[in-house]
Amino acid sequence: MTGRGVRQRHIPVLLEEVLKGLGIREGGVYLDATVGEGGHSLEILRRSARAQVIGIDQDPEALASAGAALGEFGQRVRLCRRNFRYMGEVVQEMGVPAVDGILLDLGVSSLQLDLSERGFSFSQDGPLDMRMDPDGALTAGMIVNSYSEEDLARIISTYGEERLSRRIAQAIAQERSKNPITTTAGLAVIVSRVPGMSRVKSIHPATRTFQALRIEVNDELNALREALVSGIGLLVPGGRMAVISFHSLEDRIVKRTFRRMADPCECPPDFPMCVCGALPMGSVRTRRPIIPGESERRDNPRSRSARLRIFERAPRA
Ligand SMILES: C[S@@+](CC[C@H](N)C(=O)[O-])C[C@H]1O[C@@H](n2cnc3c(N)ncnc32)[C@H](O)[C@@H]1O
Predict the structure, then answer these.
(1) What's the confidence (pLDDT) of residue 201?
(2) CB burial class (10 A; 0-12, 13-18, 19+) of residue 179?
(3) Which of 69, 77, 83, 240 could serve as a FRET partner for 188 with CA atoms 20 to 30 Å apart?
(4) Residue 6's pLDDT is what?
(5) Is the pTM here over 0.85, yes or no?
(6) Which of 109, 214, 244, 296 to mutate to test the pocket of ligand 1 (most atoms within 8 A of CB)?
(7) What separation in Å is there between the alpha carbon of 152 and the centre of ligand 1?
(8) Is the pLDDT of residue 199 over 70?
(9) Over the stretch 103-139, which tens digit does the pLDDT of each residue have?
């Protein structure tokens, strides 16, 4: 649906798996770094009568929605509008020395996707925006209309893993030389018409290009890298971080960062013992990512590409 009419609330993805993975403790403090509409936080607060939640989101509309959903819990909830890459500052400002668990449920929420004016969706027409933080300096329209053709191709290839990135960049450059490209529907049509564009029924041809633009607009991968490292440092001994990713670029970063934090030794493999002195921060709890079961995939199509990984801080790291 378009505009601001009645819409379905965001359904939290892998909810039971996240709660189990975080190992919610009575009276624990949980940092929901992507609080969104508060779906996961609501269940943390319901299931543990004394648990507290610190909720972060860079989108003021998401934060307002979380505030309404979690209002009944009063002082057990503290919300903050910030990019999660600064989660260390947020907890410090709140006077919280460490947290028992952290959740990162990456990507956009249904709230953002469903509002055409936010410009995230190719299935509804809206301005080419895609900013999660509406005060952010860069919009998708600025990228599409001002980046060089080479830079466009690079972004679409790297962040969209799109095989036809050069052709798409060329088509965009041709089109914008006539008129600026200003709408999501306009861009979707340009991409769809690129010769050779795959017609996989379940995936819109512009999916990968839109993903690439969104990642660039919000600097998503760098924010994720920073949040993973600083977040693990904020955990109490035995505390856990749960991360849900929605595409392979994110999942790869999570997998590699967790692995490096669990085994940071940089000594050459033929050294008989470690001399670099780097100590593991903890261990990876998920050898393979946890994925949604059949019924969740059926009931919530947005969950289909979700992958959950869990890291546990060492008992005395
Ligand atoms: C998938 S939604 C979270 C949904 C939430 N778990 C729920 O159940 O309602 C992701 C949210 O994270 C926010 N977000 C994504 N990247 C962020 C970042 N770098 N800093 C802060 N918030 C971010 C988005 O604005 C969005 O509201």
Answers:
(1) 63
(2) exposed
(3) 83
(4) 56
(5) yes
(6) 109
(7) 26
(8) no
(9) 999 989 888 988 899 999 888 899 999 999 999 999 9
CA-132 nearest atom, ligand 1? 25
Answer yes or no: are the C-beta atoms of 83 and 58 closer than 8 Å: yes
pLDDT of residue 4: 52
Rounded mean pLDDT, 193-221: 89
Ligand 1: atom nearest CA of 37 is: 9
CA distance 208 to 17: 28
**Mean pLDDT, rounded, for 160-167:** 96
Q: How far is the CA of 228 from the centre of ligand 1 (A)?
A: 15
Is the pLDDT assigned to residue 250 strictly greater than 70?
A: yes
169's CB contacts (< 8 A; 6+ apart) are: 149, 150, 152, 153, 156
- The pLDDT value given to residue 127: 96
Instruction: Report d(CA 55, CA 70) in Å as an integer.
Output: 10
- Residue identifier of the C-alpha nearest atom 4 of ligand 1: 36
Ligand 1 atom at minimum distance from 66 CA: 9
Nearest residue (CA) to ligand 1, atom 24: 108
Task: Choose which residue among 11, 16, 19, 34 to substitute to test ligand 1 binding: the one with the highest number of ligand atoms within 8 A of its C-beta.
Answer: 34
Residues whose beta carbon lies within 6 Å of some atom of ligand 1: 10, 12, 34, 36-40, 56-59, 62, 83-85, 105, 107-109, 132, 223
Residue 2 has pLDDT above 50, yes or no: no
> Position of tokens 């410090």?
92
**Mean pLDDT, the chain, as a whole number?**
94
Smallest CA separation from ligand 1 atom 22, residue? 57
Beta-bridge mates of residue 81: 57
H/E run at residue 54: strand 52-57
**Distance separating alpha carbons of residues 213 and 47, to the nearest angstrom:** 38
Distances 168 to 163, 179, 186, 210 between C-alpha atoms, Å = 10, 16, 13, 12
Which pLDDT band, with edges at 50, 70 and 90, does 317 fall under?
A: very low
